[in-house]
Design a protein that fits this description.
two-stranded antiparallel sheet, globular, mainly alpha, two-stranded antiparallel ribbon, 15 helices, single chain, 341 residues
């Protein structure tokens, strides 16, 4: 069994064992799918061409790798929007582009040399902010609410530098090309990334006493982009099992599924999931249900259309609905304690 098989099987078992806490409403999905049958098939834009040149293909691949390694911070989106006028995805892209323009090779030695002040400067994250005092017009300096985000970025880069050095590589791209020096399934590369690099690791428990299950959100997105961006020119990055890649289900996905009525949560589970804690034991359970729900949407939709969509395509469509504002009333759950999304 592949990493994908194990993840899907664990989530399906969870759903079967917890019908009162968590369920997928196939009737609601079928009604929604019937309305989609008369619409054009979904299409997704290919990855945008990057607006600058790289010294080599390997350096371009490394840029993409670092972008996905740091693709977290959605829990800080409200604070980022207030301070910078943009959210985590744009903030990270800005920072990675800044490193590239500055001549930073984004190697183990470059990451190791970074300080918190460097990260704050590169990603434009304030480490301090002004706070009014009891004296009119007098302010004191306190830690910015975005300082912990900068610290997470620094910790991730330092940790990645340490692992790269231990593995004998300078850049993430070298590791990827080593694993894919011969054709391998995408599941093999995803497994290698999450096994070796804590920064790509994304696991959660589906029950209090159960083992960790690999959702691998960032690694899945990274490998999927490699396939889309480079698969035609570089055969070893064209993955024959890409259609089997499951959704990574960041917390926005179950939130949308709940809003659409496809994923049903018990009152207790819904209350815990919607809480404001930095992390929640319910997150793994709800993400497991969301993964099964995405696969159910794909199955039912394919039964009523000739689209041939995958669970991952369903996830992309749901996230696109959020970005376009079609689900403005969707309650998004924020977690500041995670580097998974």
């Amino acid at each position: 069994l592949t990493l994908y098989d194990n993840t899907v099987a664990a989530c399906a078992t969870l759903l079967a064992a917890s019908p009162t806490a968590l369920s997928v409403d196939r009737a609601a999905i079928a009604e929604w799918a019937l309305a989609r049958a008369s619409e054009p098939a979904w299409t997704f834009e290919p990855p945008h061409s990057l607006p600058f040149k790289f010294d080599s293909f390997e350096h371009e691949l490394n840029f993409i790798a670092v972008k996905h390694l740091l693709a977290f911070g959605s829990g800080y989106d409200p604070e980022l929007k207030t301070a910078l006028g943009k959210e985590s995805e744009e903030t990270i892209l800005f920072g990675v582009i800044s490193m590239h323009i500055m001549g930073n090779n984004m190697s183990a030695s470059d990451f190791k040399a970074l300080s918190l002040t460097d990260v704050a400067s590169i990603f434009n994250l304030p480490l301090q902010s002004e706070q009014p005092t009891a004296i009119p017009a007098v302010y004191s300096m306190v830690a910015s609410p975005l300082r912990p985000y900068a610290e997470l970025i620094l910790d991730t880069l330092h940790g990645t530098a340490q692992v790269l050095a231990a593995q004998g590589f300078q850049r993430l791209s070298q590791f990827v090309l080593h694993v894919a020096k011969e054709p391998v399934p995408s599941s093999h590369l995803v497994d290698a990334l999450v096994s070796v690099f804590p920064g790509f690791r994304d696991t959660a428990k589906l029950s209090a006493s159960g083992p960790d299950v690999a959702f691998s959100c960032k690694a899945l997105a990274f490998v999927a982009e490699l396939h889309e961006r480079f698969g035609q020119k570089h055969p070893n990055l064209h993955f024959s099992d890409i259609a089997n890649m499951p959704p990574g289900v960041p917390l926005a996905v179950p939130a949308v599924l709940v809003r659409l009525g496809f994923l049903k949560l018990s009152d207790e589970l819904a209350e815990d999931f919607a809480g404001l804690a930095a992390s929640s034991a319910s997150d793994g359970i709800v993400r497991g249900g969301a993964l099964v729900a995405c696969l159910a949407v794909a199955e039912i939709l394919n039964g009523q259309t000739s689209w041939g969509v995958t669970g991952r395509a369903v996830e992309r469509h749901l996230l696109a609905l959020l970005r376009t504002g079609a689900l403005a009333d969707c309650h998004l759950v924020r977690r500041k304690g995670t580097t998974s999304f």
